[in-house]
Amino acid sequence: MNQRPETPGEPSEVERRLYDALDAAATRPPAPDLFERVLGSIADDRVRRRRILRTAVVLIVAISLLTAMVLLFTPRTVTGDLLLEWWILELFANVLLIGLALWLGPFIKRFGRAYAADVFHDNPQTGKSYIVLTDIVYYLIFTAYILFTISFQPREDWTHFVVPAQAGFEAARLGGILLIIGVLHGLNIILMPILGRLFSLNRKLSGR
Hints:
This protein is mostly helical.
């Protein structure tokens, strides 16, 4: 194919196309879908911050009310020491476990989204579904643990008032749920890349 000879100082065909592409890129408005995604991310962050703030306020109010109730209705000895009834500590432990579940779940999810997005980069929708399913499992475990360990009457080695045996039991409840969630979360971190590779391989094989 014959091409017109270029005169000295005149831009070549490649240079003209490059100039046109740069001019078009400079004058073209940003992609609307990207702008909407940025706005959506900002809105999601604001909603998450409001939810965290509301949860913190509710927990502070609940703990304050519980503390006031303990100070007002707990009997005292002759010397003025508190005689804490067993159900007060049990109620406080259950409130603490519920508050821990409501705080720890969004905290793990917040830092796990980027990890899941990197693992399931070939299957973004699968990554989102995986996060939702792990949230369901998380709250089911927390709920089952609280229901299994809650006490509606003093245990054999307890009395009507708080004794070291009950304090040790409640501390073990808190440590137990932290251990369970920690082990499951560690297994999830290890297994997620394996699942991501399997889903990616399955998608590539099915696309052939």
